Amino acid sequence: MANPSILILAGDGIGPEVMAEVKKIIGWFGDRRGIAFDVTEDLVGGSAYDVHGTPLTDATMAKAQAVDAVLLGAVGGPKYDVLDFSVKPERGLLRLRKEMDLYSNLRPAQCFDALADFSSLKRDVVAGLDIMIVRELTSGVYFGEPRGIFPDNEGGRVGVNTQRYTTDEIRRVARSAFELARRRGNKVCSMEKANVMESGILWREEVQWVHDNEYPDVELSHMYADAGAMQLVRWPKQFDVIVTDNLFGDLLSDCAAMLTGSLGMLPSASLGAPTESGRPKALYEPVHGSAPDIAGQGKANPIACILSFAMALRYSFDMGEEATRVERAVEAVLADGARTADLMGPEGGVPVSTAGMGDLIVKALEASL
Ligand code: IPM
Ligand code: MG
After folding, report:
1. Which of 142, 183, 218, 344 is the most exposed place for a label (fewest CB within 10 A)?
2. Pathway, per Swiss-Prot/TrEMBL (predicted)?
3. Could you tell me the residue range of the domain that residue 69 belongs to?
4. Does the beta carbon of 240 lie inside 6 Å of ligand 1?
5. What is the pTM of this model?
6. How many domains does the chain have?
7. Is 218 annotated as a binding residue?
8. Going by DSSP bridges, is the β-strand pair 187-192/219-224 parallel, antiparallel, or unpaired?
9. Taking Cα atoms as reference points, which of 19, 29, 12, 1 lies closest to residue 319?
10. Relative to the alpha carbon of 95, which ligand is closest?
């Protein structure tokens, strides 16, 4: 049987440097666990624009469709702010998500014990936290038509985006949230703004329908997304799985990331429907951005990207135990006090560079054998 295939799109800013650490982990699995991956690499975002004049070429798109999993670093940077909207780095990422139909975006917020004091919230609020945000990723206001900037009738302009959801789009992401809940705490909280948006009313009704007809055994609650944001920082442990739309999920997941101590800790998996191989179409990426302000200085935290690879092991390659091995290695390194710049708080720690963190995690993997 062919080796599982991975396409690495390191992207911009700190993307390449955090991805370099993931490559060490992939290499370790080949050398030490006999689990070899066929890895290819290509460009996305600003780095693709610089070479090809587009943030994602058709050839790269075709490669992404053909592999078992895509690993992405980050896209964007101030250098590209002046570009036309259609060729901005972010368009490359949105095209991947849309054309691979990666409708279910899993963003787990887990607080490692060693970082519980580092969060801006009190230790007892975040210690042991383990929640999963499921964000709808291919529809809603980020993709809805009509969209654009148009002249209005008074000589000014009007910017238009459309929040739009169909029954099927809501039901399929709801199913993925209920499936996950069954393997976790069996609780789903759905968030929308049904008090002011028709798309929110439909969202609530369809999630309830999926629950009543297919997952009556899972506990379901509904919350307005603004109240949900408040509850996330008040007492996040009340949640198990949160399912929400594209825009609210974008906001709520950044918020949840800070519960874990740093945006540099949060991985994500973007999954589509199962393909013929039985594996879902899949893209894995850290939730953090390209952080151009610290790029190239060895300050970036590679953990979110490494944990994204762990998610690939779990969700694409059915290697849950190996995924746990990576997560434990990260935990052990943090428990030993190793801290990249973003994790250096008043309580101190042992400062390490991006590469230093990757090397320590490889060592901890080695110690796990
Ligand atoms: C995210 C990011 C992206 C988004 C950007 C980079 C397009 O913020 O993945 O959360 O808005 O979805
Ligand atoms: Mg975001």
Report:
1. 183
2. Amino-acid biosynthesis; L-leucine biosynthesis; L-leucine from 3-methyl-2-oxobutanoate: step 3/4
3. 1-107+266-369
4. no
5. 0.95
6. 2
7. no
8. parallel
9. 29
10. 1
